[in-house]
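Dear colleague,

Thank you for sharing your sequence with our group. We've completed the structure prediction you requested, and as agreed, I am returning the results in plain text so they can be pasted directly into your records. Please verify that the sequence below matches your submission; if there's any discrepancy, let me know and we will rerun it promptly.
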Amino acid sequence: MQRVLVTGATGFVGKYTLPLLLERGFEVHAVSSKPV
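Please find the predicted structure tokens below.
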């Protein structure tokens, strides 16, 4: 399993990228200034 760090997880790109990465089996760590 590959690990990915997504910065700006609640932003425009992050909110679409996170679900795709999770569906593809990545271990995702999300960082944001807002609660995720």
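Summary note from our side: Residues 1-35 form one domain.

Kind regards,
the structure core
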